[in-house]
Amino acid sequence: MTPSPTEASERAAGPPPALGIGMVGYAFMGAAHSQGWRTAGHVFDLPLRPVLAAVCGRDETSVRAAAAKHGWAAAETDWRRLIARDDVQVVDICTPGDSHAEIAIAALEAGKHVLCEKPLANSVAEAEEMVRAAEAGRARGQLSMVGFNYRRVPAVSYARKLIEDGRIGTLRHVRVTYLQDWLADPLAPLTWRLKRERAGSGALGDLGAHIVDLAQFLTGEPLAGVSALAETFVRERPVLGGPSAGLTGAAGSAYGPVTVDDAAVFTGRLASGALATFEATRMASGRKNALTLEINGERGSLSFDLERLNELSFHDHAEPAASAGFRRILVTEPEHPYLEAWWPPGHGLGYEHTFVHQARDLVTAIATGTDPAPSFADGLQVQRVLAAVEESAAKNAVYTPVPPPSETPA
Ligand code: SOE
To answer: Probe ligand 1: pick from 115, 156, 182, 206, max atoms within 8 Å of CB?
Structure first.
């Protein structure tokens, strides 16, 4: 049967050009990113086709198994070989924070685009180096992005639009918490996330980075200063692979020091003068992944809970008091961010879809030569807030200014 003009043009067009992805790291974030790269081209009409070219990890047996499980065509055990591959145009960094700067800078210098998991780095100094490398790469047409994936929950993106459209008016308060409980058990082992030299900080960098980024993304304003308290409640934990320690810490058990915070609570002032409160902890027993936010403005309020991520609550202060109240917006309409590509209204999305949206947005940015967000400079701004939080906490909550966003750091 003769194909229609449309079918003929589509066949003539063929699949979009390939965009080779190389990923370093294959644990939780590696699995989440792999799913995003695999799925994005099957849901969105992308101008480039992500190809899972190679995944890298130190242990050859494990990384080969990860490649087979997550759909990567090849496995590497040295990230330097991965970033040198001709079939890799994008390097996706899903490793602990102590390797972000080295890998990202080398990948940019090797001519690659870079996606780097959050937090961008383990220090402001490293983040500044990464911004300089990103600026230099940009001049060569290379793009870079940091993986604050919660911006890409449709309800969060839609909240940003409502705020930009003035629907809640002048901002007064931002209230963000990120509560988990996987460290509530004092016998939870001493993993890399509990060691400063690997993770940079504890709940602050792991969870606090997300809520600082969200506060700045949603309001469009940087934090100008913070007052903070932080605590390490469990100062020693069983060493992974050490002699098994019974509940009594029986003789012969090996314990090691926890060198990061278990929890950080802090207040902040945004550039406009609006006030903000933040809580980040991995000790809130019963809270599994409870990222909640509420933004109060002169004309109304918005609130969101990651554990109900298809919903956004909106209060319009202009409503007559008798009938006023927060109303639930089910963020599943085709008019909502990203939703036109998914299911009919009411068929919700999940955590994993934020990584599909992240892949879609980076591929689109690369194809159109536009700067993806959040940028490494956005990641540096978060790093500066985290450093001010740690400085304030060390001085028992003395108000500590945050340097304003600057151009490429000197
Ligand atoms: C911490 O447990 C963690 O895995 C974070 O590192 C991620 O960024 C967050 O999305 C889920 O929780």
So the answer is: 206
Report the atom number in ligand 1 closest to the C-alpha of 206.
Answer: 6
Best CA proximity match to 202, nearest among 243, 176, 232, 160: 232
Residue 5 near ligand 1, beta carbon < 6 Å: no
In contact, 230 and 264? CB cutoff 8 Å = yes
Q: Which atom of ligand 1 is nearest to the CA of 182?
A: 2
Which residues lie closer than 8 Å to 370 by C-beta, 6 or more apart? 364
Has residue 213 got a pLDDT over 70? yes
**pLDDT tens digits, one per residue of 219-274:** 999 999 999 999 999 999 999 875 544 433 444 459 999 999 999 999 999 999 99
Question: Residue 207 Cα, ligand 1 centroid: separation in angstroms?
Answer: 7
* Residue 251: predicted pLDDT: 43
Contact 330, 32 (CB under 8 A): no
Ligand 1 pocket test: which of 28, 35, 95, 178 has the largest number of ligand atoms within 8 Å of its C-beta? Answer: 28
Residues 6+ apart with CB under 8 A from 289: 180, 306, 307, 351
- From residue 171, alpha-carbon distances to 165, 265, 321, 382 in Å are 12, 21, 21, 20
Radius of gyration of the chain, Cα coordinates, nearest whole angstrom: 22
Ordered by where they begin, the domains of the chain are 5-148 (3.40.50.720), 151-351+374-401 (3.30.360.10)
- Cα 377 to middle of ligand 1, angstroms: 21
The residues, ordered by sequence, that sit 6+ positions from 330 with a Cβ below 8 Å of its Cβ are 310, 311, 345, 346
Q: How many CA atoms lie within 13 A of 265 on its CB side?
A: 4
Ligand 1 atom at minimal distance to the Cα of residue 149: 10
Tokens representing 365? 């940015």
By alpha-carbon position, which residue is closest to atom 9 of ligand 1? Answer: 207
206 in ligand 1 pocket by Cβ < 6 Å? yes
d(CA 222, CA 174): 12
